[in-house]
Amino acid sequence: MHDRVTIRIVLPFHLRNLARVQGEVELEIQPPGTLGTALDALEARYPVLAGTIRDHITKKRRPFLRFYACERDYSNALMDTRLPDAVISGEKPLLIIGAIAGG
After folding, report:
1. At a CB cut-off of 8 Å and minimum separation 6, what does 42 contact?
2. 3-state secondary structure of 17
3. What is the CATH number of the domain that holds 41?
4. What would the DSSP string read from start to end of 50-78?
5. Is the pTM of this model over 0.70?
6. What's the CA gap between 74 and 77, in Å, rounded?
7. Would residue 39 count as lying in a domain?
8. How many domains does the chain have?
9. What is the pLDDT of residues 7-61, one digit of tens each?
């Protein structure tokens, strides 16, 4: 078994600009690979994103951001929820999407 796995994360445009990245982000995380470990690794690699995706204290998802993987909504999932095998293998990305509100 590997000590770490490489996953891919797609960020919305405004967070890519803030982190000064283009395209997908590749990160190494510890197996089994949970939503929380993925977000922890993202914030560790790009400290400027800390607090923009999750609250600093509660670690709850910020309003107007959603998490998707393999066409499934993980926005309300617990941080210890295991990501799908296709994300852990690097085949599919974890998507962080900016939600749109209107009226």
Report:
1. 9, 25, 27, 49, 53
2. helix
3. 3.10.20.30
4. TTTSB-TTT-PBPTTEEEEETTEE-TTS-
5. yes
6. 5
7. yes
8. 1
9. 999 999 999 999 999 999 999 998 889 999 999 999 999 999 999 999 989 889 9
